[in-house]
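Appendix B. Chain record.
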Amino acid sequence: MQLGYAYAQQDVAQAELQRANDARKLTHQRVDAGIDNRIQLEQANAEVAGAQQQAEQASRAIDAARSALSVLLGKGPDRGRDITRPQLLPPSMLSVPANLPVNLIGHRADLVAARWQVEASGEDIKAAKAEFLPNLGLTALAGVIGFGGSNILNLPSRFYSVAPALSLPIFNGGRLRYNLRGKDAQYDIAVAQYNQTLVKAVNEVADDVDALQSLQQQATSEQQALDAARSAWKLAEQRYKAGVGSYLEALTVRQQLLVAEQRMAALKAQQSDQSVQLIQALGGGYRPAHGQLPPEPKATASSSVSPTPDNRS
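Structure tokens predicted for this chain:
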């Protein structure tokens, strides 16, 4: 997108340079004829110098964008010279759909990770609760009772040195309760973090949508100004060809048209950048280049965006 914008700026800069040179040439002729003075000529020279600077900046911007793309491709700077001019996205592909489902943010990696953390904490709670159940086979239990008598609480201490894998929660219930409380706390923290991530994601999407809609309104107004400038340029040309107006007057109108074209190119570049930010905020779930929304994601750990229910049991 930066490369496409740089090319658009170069088009405007080159057109302005041509216009400024034509205006300076006519002004020089008028000065020689005694119609204008040196002040008008110096102003024309300043316009040419400014147009040359803009053209050079646009050319450097193209080179910089090509070099950046070469780096992304893992190639050397020579690869950038082979990159041709890209096509800019039409306005229809930069618009925000009227129905943009909020569940598209379920594609975001940070939200998916937060959801998985909640589910993992829920599983930890289940595992902590399972520790309260005895891990002792009935066959082994019969042997234990025979070894220590009818009261299993009266087992001699040497029994645990020969059967360390056997677990009876009645001997360490305090530790298990503390462990379960810790898992509950971790679950609550995970849920809070998930909800915080969700709120942040929704706010980011809302901000990007608002910004993109604002740019669309600006582009609509600027398009009207551009259409008016084109009409004025067309009329100025007709007046010049009919011998009513001078070509210098027509070039002045042409300058206004080029300024409008430059503003429109800048707005389109901002729209493209903002569309990319919206795609990032949605986690890649929105594809404006196709002019449509993807299928709604299933309600799984990777897509759910609703506040997490209590899955401790």
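Further analysis of this model is presented in Appendix C.
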